Amino acid sequence: MFHSKLDPFPTDFLWGAASAAYQVEGAWDADGKGPSIWDTYSQIAGNTFEETNGKIAIDHYHRYKEDVALMKQMGLKAYRFSVAWSRILPEGEGAVNEAGLRFYEDLVDELLAHDIEPVLTLYHWDLPQGLQDRYQGWESRQTAEAFENYCRILFERLGEKVTYWVTMNEQNVFTALGYRWGAHPPGIKDLKRMYAANHIINIANAKAIHLFHEMVPQGKIGPSFGYGPMYPFSCDPEDVLAAENGEAFNNAWFLDVYCKGQYPKFVYKQLAKLGIAPEVTLEDQQLMKQAKPDFLGINYYHGGTAQQNQFQKQQTAKKEFSKVDPYLMQATSDALAPEENMFATAENPMLKKTDWGWEIDPVGFRVALRRIQANYDLPIFVTENGLGALDQLSDCQIHDSYRIDYLQEHLLELQKAITDGVDMIGYCAWSFTDLLSWLNGYQKRYGFVYVDRDNQQEKQLARIPKDSFYWYQEVIRTNGASLLQNEK
Ligand code: BG6
């Protein structure tokens, strides 16, 4: 679709920025907070980059007023943050820690007093350690129940003040890193356990949405999904099929459950053949069907490219009928790659990459938004998008023109998607301030506001607005009109 003129951004468009509790708050054991799996995991040598952790992070817990004042100065319309479950319930369940709850109520009040819409994420990866120890975390249905109770406490306390709620942040990412690659807590490498945990997280998500609709009928709730559109490597129909498989395996596997209340059939069948599909009860099916989100949160960084895998290629080339069931063969030869039967990934030669090797693909952003709109027909809230880079402080300034370019290009594609007909609520850049990158410490920076600390030292944690801060300020002030002016 080509547009000679782009539609303006909606007048109530929520221009925002985002963060997550463990990555910014610090105060890891203050005022009765219990440990999370990340507090524990980051204590073990070798688990994180240069042993970085969130004990102090950028001390947002104690400096939130200063941070909100900066948001106001920028003109931010929305701020997405997450609640640390173990601040509210130190053990994950049981007695409520009033001081923890009060912190979030104070933060919400501070935002509202500055006309900033709070966007509250209920789960951004920091499961209470108590639940991991007692129930094996997300591998048990008791954790889904504990999540529902935790949500009830927040809905009761903040339901009248907060309109936008996010259930799970990037379920696809935290289950893969935590249960497949062993790179996040609980550090497991077991696909069967991953799919079982993922199913219980789906149950937890559905329970939370269901409860929310009962308790906060005027509010809006949805998960935030890390969406990456899949491209075929070539126009070879086999590559096209591989890309469709990639979409199903990477994206529909999660999004269909959220939005249609059921697992996509093709993927489920493959997993069942490998003996790693989750067990789904009738009750689960009913619950998943009932709990439809009001919007979809989308985190977009990049997509992927798929091609027919080598194994399939040989099969096609030889045109032989193999008596060996390829699925079972795969299961025994490489149980860690169920998608091998469906697609292989390839480098996309058309795209540049970030300092960390992530593809930069603004058009893919538009593709993503359109595909989601077409498949699920829900309003979309972009809850993350941004550039991780090595920023250099010179003369108390950060000239991050590369970040401005990145955001400018992505926002223009978002405007094109709006013009195409995508229903958009808002856009939260990742991130407002610099923060702790889970596995890359404090050197991989995303913020509009530089925070003067490094991996080893907290220093004074001074906040220094970058060039991108002033650029985004102008984007917000003009409700996006400056994006097109910048192009001229
Ligand atoms: C998203 C997460 O996956 O990506 C954020 O929701 C994270 O919490 C962001 O920080 C960027 O990832 P990274 O690894 O570059 O810090």
TrEMBL record:
<dbReference type="InterPro" id="IPR033132">
    <property type="entry name" value="GH_1_N_CS"/>
</dbReference>
<dbReference type="InterPro" id="IPR001360">
    <property type="entry name" value="Glyco_hydro_1"/>
</dbReference>
<keyword id="KW-0326">Glycosidase</keyword>
<dbReference type="GO" id="GO:0005829">
    <property type="term" value="C:cytosol"/>
</dbReference>
<comment type="similarity">
    <text>Belongs to the glycosyl hydrolase 1 family.</text>
</comment>
<dbReference type="Pfam" id="PF00232">
    <property type="entry name" value="Glyco_hydro_1"/>
</dbReference>
<protein>
    <submittedName>
        <fullName>Beta-glucosidase</fullName>
        <ecNumber>3.2.1.86</ecNumber>
    </submittedName>
</protein>
<dbReference type="GO" id="GO:0016052">
    <property type="term" value="P:carbohydrate catabolic process"/>
</dbReference>
<dbReference type="InterPro" id="IPR017853">
    <property type="entry name" value="GH"/>
</dbReference>
<keyword id="KW-0378">Hydrolase</keyword>
<dbReference type="GO" id="GO:0008706">
    <property type="term" value="F:6-phospho-beta-glucosidase activity"/>
</dbReference>
<feature type="active site" description="Nucleophile">
    <location>
        <position position="384"/>
    </location>
</feature>
<dbReference type="InterPro" id="IPR018120">
    <property type="entry name" value="Glyco_hydro_1_AS"/>
</dbReference>
